[in-house]
Amino acid sequence: MHPLHLEGKWRIQAHGRSLILPKRANEKASHVWLKGFLWYLYLPDYPEAQVEREIGHRYKPDVVAFAESWHDYPAHSPVFWAEAGQVAQQKLETLFRQFPATHFAVAKWGNPGPWAEILRKIQRPGKRRAPIDLLHFPEDSLERFVSTSGEISLTLEQVLTQRL
Questions:
Q1: pTM of this prediction?
Q2: What is the CATH number of the domain that holds 59?
Q3: Tally of structural domains, the chain
């Protein structure tokens, strides 16, 4: 067993903090790692970021942050919301419309395919007040960006495909 993998959970370390990510039986390893990478990359800008936090919205974010300490939606909108791996275009359209001031990140493992074009089409130009990031993580991301002790070493510039 890899030292990062606990039974049903994976442990990562970033910015002096540790995070336990649950690994569900039917969940792809790449999805778990994408959530960890997103948390790591955006934690300096959003120190209150949490992974898989139910916020009371119809959709559950993979990574979410509110302005200061934890606030319940709908009293406060998130300042950051990230989706990892497979995500429906309709879900993003709804979220972009409901949260025009929320910074969004969409992360893909391997080839991001047509996602840059899809995000351009649904971003609601003129109505958004915060960026949308498309991140592309290469297939060898674990070998490149994660040490055997679980420490992530990665910069946004290494994986940011586009900021809209």
A1: 0.91
A2: 3.10.640.10
A3: 1
